[in-house]
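Sample 1 of the test manifest.
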Amino acid sequence: MGSINLRNVSKVFGEAKVIPSINLQINEGEFVVFVGPSGCGKSTLLRLIAGLEDVSDGEIVIDGQNATELPPAKRGLAMVFQSYALYPHMSVRSNIAFPLKMAGMDKGEIDRKVSDAARVLNLTDYLERKPRQLSGGQRQRVAIGRAIVRQPKAFLFDEPLSNLDAALRVNMRLEISELHQQLKTTMIYVTHDQVEAMTMADKIVVLNRGNIEQVGSPLELYCKPANLFVAGFIGSPRMNLIEGKFAEAKGAKTVGIRPEHIGLSRDSGLWEGTVTIAEHLGSDTFMHIQVQGVGTVTARASGEFWVRHGDRVYLTPDETKLYRFNEKGLAL
Amino acid sequence: MARKVSTQRKVAFTGIAWTIGFLMFFPILWTFLTSFKSEGDAIASPPVFLVFNWTLENYHEVQSRSDYFGHFWNSVVISFGSTLLGLLIAIPAAWAMAFSPTKRTKDVLMWMLSTKMMPPVGALIPIYLIFRDGGLLDSRIGLVVVLTLINLPIIVWMLYTYFKEIPGEILEAARMDGASLMKEVIYVLTPMAVPGIASTLLLNIILAWNEAFWTLNLTTSNAAPLTTFIASYSSPEGLFYAKLSAASTMAIAPILILGWFSQKQLVRGLTFGAVK
Amino acid sequence: MAVRFLSASVLYLSEYILGAAKMATIHTRSVARLMMAPSVILLFAWMIVPLGMTIYFSLLRYNLLMPGTEEFTGLLNYEFFLTDPAFFDALKNTLLLVGGVLAISVIGGILMALLLDQPMFGQGIVRILVIAPFFIMPTVAALVWKNMFMNPVNGLFAWLFRLFGAQPLDWLAVAPLTSVVIIVAWQWLPFATLILLTALQSLDEEQKEAAEMDGAGPISKFIYITLPHMARAITVVVLIETIFLLSVFAEILVTTNGGPGTQSTNITYLVYTQALLQFDVGGASAGGIVAVVLANIVAIFLIRMIGKNLEA
């Protein structure tokens, strides 16, 4: 249970074509991440699947059944909202119980399911509190609890971690991944953060201006970006994109090389450059290097690499890890 | 960022603030005290503050001589009646404007507000004549209608600002959770809208209770609320301070208590959401 | 057919209840219009009918004591009203009353708000004490001040004056307008304080600290940080008070009756005396229209202010 199929789905708001036309297959049990810059249509796509927006054209098929015309409640999906959307006047217990109550489940059953969910999510001690008495992370867990009690066909997450601080975000990321391991339910997760996408997804859908740029596993996207957009979006720090003579020599309009695929040396190499900024993280060193005739190149050295602003270094890109793109930005 | 404040400074400010607070409140306190005095004590010179023969006689007299509670009841009927009627009319309007806004919503709101700015003398004469010809002068129903109309813009505005704060995502969450329309209204919308409606109710009862242009001009005796009744003490033969104080204390006490509860809503309501 | 109609109307009703939750389709837009209709129609009628009638009456010679003699006189009523010396007195008094109360309540309100924002014991209680006068019925406020404070024989002020060996003042006879200003200001000072205090408390503490780090002393902090932050609240106070103060009525009615002479008559009160005491409907209507025009000048500014705020 939990396969979702989008067939020629499009969405038009007034004059604006937010989503021109999308085809997408989401398999049962998959963790799918929609990723892209803000305004790329990823949230709209999620809301179309949820039924919170009407599709302008096309079909949404859930578990083989055409759900295009079904209201959100009938689709058997659960959603975790960016603002959590907890009911402020209800206790944590009532919030989690709400979908079960709406389904007309009997009280004993509701209590049992709520306490199960609370145990899984470490909320047992907070069941009688109101949402405003909880921390951000706890609210997030209540929102997840409200979603899991109904045992939906799929979970939809709309940028669920964007309101949390960095440390908590890493924690919740792990918790959601663990949850997916436990439940094995389909999850669709929207984020603008490619790190979240890379770490959590089975399958990443990269969106840009309402179009799917590429679909694939995290490593596929990393190793074989289909175009310039995906190449620039996936990977941190960003891939260096170099135009001009160097690219022409390789028979391409643009050549991409990831910072981690550039060899560094103090005395010899293909390119000579001056360090403008060096970021020492301990485990890695990131350098922004001004290279004559190429531009600013970002390079990564594993571990500590002692350079400072103004130092002279030599760079050698790994020829086997070069990405070549044509005039249209497509990979060669 | 709580900062350490020297106790000295704090004590000094406490002293000044309490003095000013006491002075501002003094006329009310003095009225309250005088209401328990005999008429003799009330005009004693030098004035007596706390040491006098406390008596409830004035309250008794005010009621027995002039049907005080009749007027009190008029005030209750007029202020609650006009507020409830106003809410009945305003809730759908505010609801529609908050949840399905169009390009013109803002203009409609501004226009509604502008009707509140028309000075009452601009409408006094026609309303007076209409009321005279329609037998509505000195009737509670007539005043309920007028006060509903003059406060309607404020009611719509206040409700609008409250309804707008109900986040759309919560309604969507309820629908994802499988709530039907009716259940959504009962379990999610109503509980979230009630505090705003209650605040609006409170502020408008206060405004209607204290309204003193239309009540003074459109009532004389039968339907006279407390504003008109108290005004009758302005004639020289009504110069009985203790009784005036007793009548005044009863007229202001309920609203003073309501008012203290609604301080925060008051700012929002009276500035049309411009200051929160 | 009937079933379809029934189900359609049930749907319609449910959307009426919940115009909110649905998408903005043409259908819900018409429901929204239906929901707004009662308010809009009533307010429109309330605005246009009396105003139209007042304009109409203002063009007539129309006295309630001489029924049946109404006739069209053009702008004669306006000529009489605007050239009446009482009008100039009333206009002057209206401006003095509005200006005086505004000055007291805004300046006093800023000072009180600054004071109440300081750390102290029992802040909540002081706040309650200061705000209380705003909730007092205008007729009660006026009568309490008139009798128990300003009365030349039995008032507390008279006693205070005598205590310091001065001659007690007959406030309402000697300084009628000032007395009215004091009474009205007592009611509106709390309003200004409350709103300015609310604005003051929304000032970001870090902004003040940043100013301190930048070397601003208490006075420059007030002038460059606090005052600009309160500017909008001050404007709102000024405009809203002006709207209400242009129509001060009860306080004059129960204290001075506009007198002695016309010394404390404002435009609202002048229109009232012409209409309900002299029964001159035509003249009073002309006065009413003049008052509407004056109020509109203020209203335009207020509407703009609040309108801008709506977008923010």
